[in-house]
Amino acid sequence: MPAPIAIVDVGSNTIKLLVAAPAPGTPGSIQTLSARTIDARISAGISRGNPVLSEDGITRGLDAITALLADAAPFAPASTVIVATSAVRDALNGRDFCARVQSATGHPMRILTGEEEANAIGRGLTCDPALRELHDFYVFDLGGGSLECLRFQKRRIQQAISLPLGCVRLTERFVADSAAPIHVAALQQVRAHVRDSLASSGFSFDLRAPAQAVFAGGSMTTVRAIFAANAGCPLFDAPARIDTSSIQTLLNRTAALPLPARHLEVPGLPPSRADVFPVALATIEAVADAGHLSAFHHTFHNLRYGIAAEAFG
C-alpha cells in the first residue's frame, strides 16, 4: 500500500484529522485509516466587523492540532497537510495563528480561499462510493463560519462558491441569548438572510427537478447522529437520506428548549454544538426552500477527503 498522508482541517467550530491512503483496486477512492474530530470553536467573535481570533481560541486550536498530529504519528504519514478555513481566513490575526502553528508543530498551515475550500469539498465527495451513481446534483457544506455551495453536472463542478453563512457566525448575529429558547422571529431572520444571500450570490438552482442534493459538515452529521440515537443504532447505520420535513421537526424541538436542556433531552446532540444547532437547522431549511429540495443525502466525504485526493494526485 502507498504511504499514508495526514490531513488536519482547522475549521471554525471543529478541527478534524484524516489519515488516509489510496484504496487498493479502486481508482479514485480513498481508504480511511484514522479519523478524529475535536470541538475547539476557535471562531468565537467571528461575526464582528473586525474579527480577531482570541488567545483562548488560538490556544484551543493549537492544543487540538497538536493532539491530532500525535494521533497520526503511529501511521508514519509520508506527508502532513494542515489547512484552515473561514475563521482563520477572515481573522485579522489569521497569519499570526499560522505562524504559531508552524512554530509549535513544524508544519505550515495553508489558509484556503473560499473558492479553494468549495472545490476541495466537491473533490472530496466524489471519493464517496455511496455517491457514485449521482451525476447532476447540488452539494452544500455548513461549517461554523461559512456555507459552501456547489453544482455538479455530469460529475463535474460547474459552480462553487463560499458564503459567510456559518452557524457560529449567524448565531452571534441574530440570536441575542443562545442559552435561552430561540424566538421564532430570530429564526425567521436567519432564514431570510440565508435566502437573500443565496439569491444575491448568483448560485444557480437550475438542475431539473426533483434535484438530488448532498449535504456535508458537522451540523448535518449531528442531525444524522440524533436520528441514529433515536433509532438505537450506530451513526454509520442510520439512513444517509434526511428529509427536510424531519429537519423542520427537529428545529422546532431544539429551538424551544433552553441550552442546558438541549443536549440533555436530545440524545446525539453534543454540548459543544447545542448553542448553534437551531440556527444551523434554520440555515439548512433555508437552503432547501431556495432550491425546492425535499431531502439531502448526508456524506462524511468533504474537505479532508478533497485535500487528500489533491495530495494523491
State which percent range the strand residues make up. 15-25%
Physical arrangement of strands within the biggest beta sheet: 8-7-6-9-11-10
Order of helices and strands: EEEHEHHEHEEEHHEHEHHHEH
What structural category characterises the helix and strand content?
alpha/beta
In whole angstroms, the N-to-C terminal distance is 16 Å
- In the CATH hierarchy, what is the architecture of the largest domain at level 2? 2-Layer Sandwich
Give Rg in angstroms. Answer: 18 Å
Low-confidence stretches: none
Major sheet summary line: 6 strands, mixed
- Classified in CATH, the superfamily of the largest domain is Exopolyphosphatase. Domain 2
- Tell me the name of the CATH class of the largest domain: Alpha Beta
Strand count: 11
Helix content: 40-55%
CATH topology of the largest domain: Nucleotidyltransferase, domain 5
Q: How many helices in DSSP terms? A: 11
- The number of domains is 2
Shape: globular
* Mean pLDDT across all amino acids: 94
Task: Give an overview of the whole structure.
By secondary structure, the protein is of the alpha/beta class. The chain folds into two domains: 5-115 and 303-312, Nucleotidyltransferase, domain 5; 129-298, Exopolyphosphatase. Domain 2 (Nucleotidyltransferase, domain 5, 2-Layer Sandwich), CATH 3.30.420.150. Helix content is 42%, strand content 21%. The strands form two sheets. Strands 8-7-6-9-11-10 form a six-stranded mixed β-sheet, with helices on both faces. The longest helix has 18 residues, at 55-72. The chain is globular. It starts with a strand and ends with a helix.
